[in-house]
Amino acid sequence: MSKLNIGIILGSTREGRLSPQVGEWVKKIADERNDANYEIVDIAEYKLPLLGEADATEQATKWNEKLNTLDGFVFIVQEYNHSISASLKNALDYAREAWNNKSAGIVSYGSVGGARAAEHLRGILGELSVADVRVHPALSLFTDFDSNGKFTPADLHLTNLNGMLDQVLAWGGALKTLR
Ligand SMILES: Cc1cc2nc3c(=O)[nH]c(=O)nc-3n(C[C@H](O)[C@H](O)[C@H](O)COP(=O)(O)O)c2cc1C
């Protein structure tokens, strides 16, 4: 069976964001497993305007084409006002079928591990028919980043990250049979 394609989606787009460091960490650990094709998918590169505010046919097409190549996702989620970022919500709203019947894991961060944002995302993923898995690495802004914003993850997150990836691949493979 061919390897699944898993997109590691960076949920924030602001200048100075922390998400690229977290995405790179996930990709490094994931690549060492050699069990799927993992790639970082940076929402910022797609320059999606707020949905409905401008003609974004070209950007929307490119975004949907990228999602169509993927069998599952790892969302890098940061907490903004107890929810997900507006840029991630906007990117989610830009596709429908391209999300459907795929699996997803969540890696979140915030003052309480980004837990509130992660739970909001789960509700949205249900509507998009994305099967989000239970295991969820939740990173602390206080202990997993230093005072300069450098990512210094505690070792304990490795177990959760690998457990989450195991579930994303298992469900991703099963759901592929539905598409
Ligand atoms: C508008 C805004 C709202 C935020 N609200 C919360 C919050 O409710 N809870 C929390 O834990 N962190 C909150 N934060 C802190 C962010 O989680 C933190 O800045 C994080 O690094 C943002 O992700 P990013 O660096 O990838 O953009 C907020 C940050 C911003 C910019």
From TrEMBL:
Superkingdom of origin: Bacteria
Coiled-coil segments: none
Pfam families tied to this protein: FMN_red (PF03358)
Domain NADPH-dependent FMN reductase-like: 5-135
SUPFAM superfamilies cross-referenced by the UniProt entry: Flavoproteins
Similarity comment text for this entry: Belongs to the azoreductase type 2 family.
UniProt name for this protein: NAD(P)H-dependent FMN reductase
Species: Paenibacillus turicensis
